[in-house]
């Protein structure tokens, strides 16, 4: 008798091609919806948002959109406003896509740029940069 894998193993699995394709389609639909949307929420008036990534659940019922306001706006206010307007955004996305059911969309702040900047700062610290030097980086004229 075969046993099912544990749920932690299943959640660690890479997304399927279909999940990736649907996620990308939702990302495009969100971008288009944000360009044309007229939000009533004051936190979303004149909204300019970058949708960096959309991750879709295996059953395609839930999606997480990672967003960042352009021009360095208050990301927490924008994310909170988008989550309040999620039903409206979902209807806008559904009208632009050809799925049986539009997924429930949860918005989160995209922290990838901040993480990349932190890693870049760390790599350029003098003590770390010294450890990262390779023999090819040494100057033969110095004799080092």
| Number of domains as seen in the coordinates | 1
Summed up, the helix count is 6
CATH class type? Alpha Beta
Structural class by helix and strand composition: alpha+beta
Q: Give the percentage of residues in beta strands.
A: 15-25%
Report how far apart the termini are: 64 Å
Order of H and E elements:
HHEEHHEHH
How many strand units? 3
Question: How much helix is in the residues?
Answer: 40-55%
Arithmetic mean of pLDDT: 81
CATH superfamily: K homology (KH) domain
Describe the overall structure.
- The chain has one domain: K homology (KH) domain (GMP Synthetase, Chain A, domain 3).
- A 3-stranded mixed beta sheet has the order 1-2-3.
- Helix content is 45%, strand content 15%.
- β1 and β2 form a beta hairpin.
- By secondary structure, it is α+β, with helices and mostly antiparallel strands.
- The chain starts with 6 loop residues before the first helix and ends in a 12-residue tail after the last helix.
List descriptors:
144 residues, GMP Synthetase, Chain A, domain 3, 3 strands, flat
Summarize the structure.
The chain has helices at 7-11, 17-36, 75-84, 86-96, 112-123, 126-132; strands at 49-56, 62-69, 104-109.
Question: How is the topology of this model organized?
Answer:
Layout: H1 7-11, H2 17-36, E1 49-56, E2 62-69, H3 75-84, H4 86-96, E3 104-109, H5 112-123, H6 126-132
Helix pairs in contact: 2-4
